[in-house]
Write a structure and sequence with these properties.
The chain is mainly alpha-helical. It folds into 3 domains: 118 residues, no CATH class; 202 residues, Growth Hormone, Chain: A; 168 residues, no CATH class. The strands form 2 sheets. A 3-stranded antiparallel beta sheet has the order 1-2-3. Helix 6 crosses helix 11. It is flat and about 100 Å long. Belongs to the RUS1 family.
């Protein structure tokens, strides 16, 4: 019986799907790895348009066995949101070329293709504007943004950039004014004298910078207040520099005073910069956050300087220009400082947290507590309702009142007393006081103040603040002693819940930021 032979076309048709996919993958990989000037290889006539379209998305519309049959997928890679796939050609003709005349030639060609890795991009090329924006972002935002910084980073940098914009614009007018003032009498002043005046001005600023550096830890625990105060000094110095245009004969003293103020502001800005950037950084990227933040400030300063140069050519009113730029600078500085969210509790934020807890039973969130912090409560402000760690002679005027409350705090490492004549609550610390004892002592002082204010509260809300200030002097010694006893009971019951709720909200409680005085009560040696 004669064996039937299948037509060749049937064999070809059975391998067509696999052959089509192989050819598509080979051509696409060659196009991806070839240089832009390389010629595009012709597409096999066996490939239909539908097959070609579906095969371009590797791993989506192509079966894995077809990929492995010709090109093996090595790995997938993602960088900056863009994905790549890497293939290698593992085809071999050793099994099909045995006994053929051209087998050796084909084997040589395969050896040349051996270990070739081809990269295929799964994304279309970016538009020029997108590439430009990516280039700008690499200079102004930290790597991994926005996941590498806290949410408060964006509003802070926005207001910081606006502040530097107004500062750069102001610098053009102040510099122009100083140059005109120092050279106003150049017909009778030698260039050497002008240079000496300018050097003396800069020297006075450096001296002021060194003297102000003794503030020390105040840059840490009251950094928002000092940062804003430093910006106010910067604007004060700019205003004094502009006054030299009115009285140029007093250039040297005015310029020296202005430079001292501006250098003090510069010290404040430099000293408070690192703690603020540290609050924004997530992980060990504070260097990246700092570098990008300074880049944003310098860029905004350059833009402000360039715009101010164009405006100065039209000779605008110096008073109106200064008023507009100063308002913009101070307002931006205030919003910049208010946008900072710190996790630590200094005196201002500790007061907000304790008062909120005593009134509502809840500790404010980080965002709420920082937004309610009083920025205008400067460290050198004398009147404070609660004095932490004072000298004994400042806290006690009546020995009997001290001896009356001393037994109450026998088991504590602090003593809370009062001074009716000064209207302040004083928290004396013992030499055994540790970090938690200082926190508890500060909490006790606020509890006692809350009790006294509540007991002397009047119906008229318009006079409430005045009455609070006089509340201590209106109370008798017996009433005050009773309030101290009540406060001790409240602290024993509420201090631990307060600490627990504060930690739940993310607050970091550290006594060093409360800035207690250095005086300590020590035991008497018999």
């Amino acid at each position: 019986m004669k064996q039937l032979k299948h037509p060749p076309s049937s064999t070809t048709s059975s391998h067509d799907p696999k052959l089509l996919v192989r050819e598509t993958l080979r051509i696409t990989a060659d196009l991806a790895s070839a240089p832009p000037s390389a010629a595009v290889p012709p597409v096999s006539p066996l490939l239909s348009s539908e097959t070609t379209t579906n095969s371009l998305n590797f791993g989506v519309g192509v079966d894995r066995q077809f990929v492995d049959s010709s090109l093996r997928l090595l790995c997938c890679e993602e960088i900056d949101g863009r994905r790549w796939k890497y293939f290698t050609d593992e085809s071999s003709c050793s099994s099909s070329s045995g006994g053929r005349v051209g087998g050796g030639c084909e084997q040589l060609k395969l050896k040349k293709k051996k270990n070739v890795i081809r990269a295929v991009s799964l994304h279309s090329p970016q538009a020029p504007i997108e590439e430009f924006m990516a280039f700008i972002r690499s200079y102004v935002v930290p790597e991994g943004f926005p996941n590498s910084v806290t949410p408060s980073y964006v509003p802070y940098m926005t207001w910081r950039a606006l502040k530097h914009f107004f500062g750069g614009a102001m610098g053009v007018f102040t510099t122009q004014t100083l140059l005109n003032s120092v050279g106003v009498s150049k017909h009778r002043t030698t260039p050497g004298a002008v240079a000496i005046n300018w050097i003396l001005k800069d020297g006075a600023g450096r001296v002021g910078k060194m003297l102000y550096a003794r503030q020390g830890k105040k840059f840490d625990y009251d950094l928002k207040q000092l940062r804003f105060a430093g910006d106010l000094l910067m604007e004060l110095g700019a205003g004094v520099e502009l006054v030299t245009a009115i009285v140029p004969q007093f250039f040297l003293p005015l310029a020296c005073a202005a430079n001292v103020a501006k250098n003090v502001g510069a010290v404040t800005s430099t000293s408070t910069r690192t703690p603020i950037y540290k609050a924004f950084a997530k992980g060990e990227n504070i260097g990246d956050v700092t570098a990008k933040g300074e880049c944003v400030g310098n860029l905004a300063d350059l833009l402000g300087t360039g715009l101010s140069i164009l405006i100065s050519k039209r000779n605008p009113s110096l008073v109106k220009t200064f008023a507009f730029l100063s308002f913009g600078y101070v307002f931006s500085s205030y919003r910049e400082v208010k946008s900072v969210v710190l996790h630590t509790l200094n005196r201002a934020r500790f007061t907000v947290a304790v008062e909120s807890f005593l009134k509502t039973g809840r500790v404010p969130t980080l965002q709420d507590g920082n937004s309610r912090e009083n920025i205008f409560n400067f460290p050198w402000k004398n009147h404070r309702p609660i004095i932490l760690g004072p000298r004994f002679r400042e806290a006690v005027e009546d020995p009997n009142s001290f001896l009356a409350v001393k037994p109450i705090f026998e088991k504590e490492n602090y003593i809370v007393t009062y001074n009716p004549s000064k209207g302040n609550i004083y928290v004396l610390l013992k030499d055994q006081a540790k970090s938690d004892d200082v926190l508890k002592a500060a909490f006790h002082g606020h509890v006692l103040l809350h009790i006294i204010r509540s007991s002397t509260k009047k119906q008229s809300s318009s006079r409430r603040q005045h009455e609070d200030e006089l509340s201590l002097s209106l109370l008798s010694a017996a009433d005050l002693q009773a309030h101290v006893v009540d406060s001790y009971k409240m602290v024993s019951a509420l201090y631990m819940p307060f600490k627990s709720k504060a930690k739940e909200q993310g607050w970091v409680m550290s006594e060093s930021l409360l800035n207690p005085g250095r005086a300590r009560l020590c035991e008497m040696v018999k």
